[in-house]
Each structure stands twice: as C-alpha cells, then as structure tokens.
Fold this sequence. Notes:
Beta-Lactamase; WH-like_DNA-bd_sf; IclR family transcriptional regulator; disordered N terminus; DNA-binding; globular; Arc Repressor Mutant, subunit A; six-stranded antiparallel sheet; 18% strand; 2 domains; two-stranded antiparallel sheet; 12 helices; alpha+beta; Tscrpt_reg_IclR_N
Amino acid sequence: MAPSRARALTNVGGMLQRIREKPGVPPVRSVERAVALLRAFTPDRPRLSLTELAQIAELDKGTARRILHTLSMTGLVSFDPRAQRYMLDAGICEIASAVQVGLDLREIASPILAEVTELTSASAFLWVHHDDAALCVDRVRAPLFHIDATWFAVGARTALNCGAGPRIILAYISDEERERSLAGEMPRRTPLSETAPAKLRKAAGSIREKGWELAQDDFYIGLAALGVPIFDRGGGFAGAVSITSLTADIVTDGLPRHLDILKHAADRIGERLQAPGASADRQQGKK
C-alpha cells in the first residue's frame, strides 16, 4: 500500500475511534460515514476513486456511492465522469470560512508571514495545536518552481514528529497533551523521520532549551525547515511559525539561516496577540 494511502487510512481510522470513545449521545452512523469520506481527501490525494474512498472510509462501495451522491447534491463533493474520480467541491470552502480555530492568530500573522517569505525566499507556515496534531492555519508559498513537493495547505493536519513547526508544537504543549499525541500514529515520511516516543520526548526538551527547531530531510529528502514558538502577551504558548526550502537555503555549516528573522516575526505576532481571558479580566477589573 502506498505511504500516503496508509496515512489516510490511519488518520480516518483514528478520527472514527475518537468519535466512538467520546461519552454522551451516540453518534449518528450516517453522519460519521459521510465525515469519514470527506476526511479521506488530503492535499497529496485530492482526487480519489470510489474504490479508494470506500477503502479509506472502511465502507462497502454501495454505501460509499450513495453517501457521495448526497454530498454531491449538497455541493460538498464533485465527480469527474471522465477520470472516474471524486474531489471536494467549493461548498467545503464556504464552510471552512467560518472556522474559528486559530482565526485571531492567523489574522495577526498573515502580513508578517508574507514579509518572512519575502526576506527569506522560503515558504512560511503558521501552526497551532489541535486534536493532538499540528494544524496549518496559514501559509505563504515562495515561488520555488524547482521544488516538486506537496506543500501543506491551510487546514491540513500532521503528526508532531516531523517538520520544524509541528515539532515546536510537540515541545511546548503540556506534558499531558504531548503524551496523548505520542500515543498516536507517528508516520515515517522518510528514512530520517523520528517515530520513537522516547527520542521525541528527549527532542522536545532540547527544543525548549534552545527555543527553535531545525528539521532536515525528515519530511522530504532535500528539504529543511526552521521553526520557532509564538507566545502571547501573557506568556502563553500560542503556536509556531516555520519556513521551509531546500536545505542549502535554510542551513549553513550545520547552523540555521534566517533564525533572527523568524524570531523577530514570532515576537511581532506575539506582541499583538492578546492572552486568552485578558478582555474578561479587564472587564472584571472595571467593576
């Protein structure tokens, strides 16, 4: 099985397991199945056949076809009859525009990310911790036409073992959150991807000590990434900002390039980011 398909099966399977483990009202099976089909699509697999979708969502083809037909009628999925492939439709974008996770951070960081890309000629990414993974909430791609790689899109999630931004998340979340993340699937994207929980715990401590992370060849061979944490005005960890490009563009003599630029960007974002509850605290102080 191809690595991307194996990851998709694991991701959807993990999502379904989390739904089933949550107490309270039992989930609606038909909705659960529809969500599994929608989440089968990824940036590196945006077009899938009925057979592939049924396999990833763990459904029989007849059930998958009926659900996909309904999703198509609601504008969430489209079908290419010539290629016999399904893909997400524009209705997903309309729903995504209402997502609040990381919204304040993204609105503050977006122009700063653009400056980082302009200064470094590297693609810049903004990450937050969500559902035991790193969620990409914004990116600015550099015009690197000589690099053939699937870049993370806004809304894409990844495990915390690979990449500078996700590993920053791993280092600065709470011990409880870290252990929960390490208990999940740690994909080996390249031979240099670290998957051992004990080594990842040790790496998290090292990242906290130095305040940055340099990742090389663990996501794509030939690419490197540099990441730093973002702290809000209250000192709380808010997310991570990272840059990615060819290793020679990020690393010189084993040391990261552009670290000062990235740290300055993170500081600027953090200075504008209000600590959670700060408004409520001020309102109570007025009473």
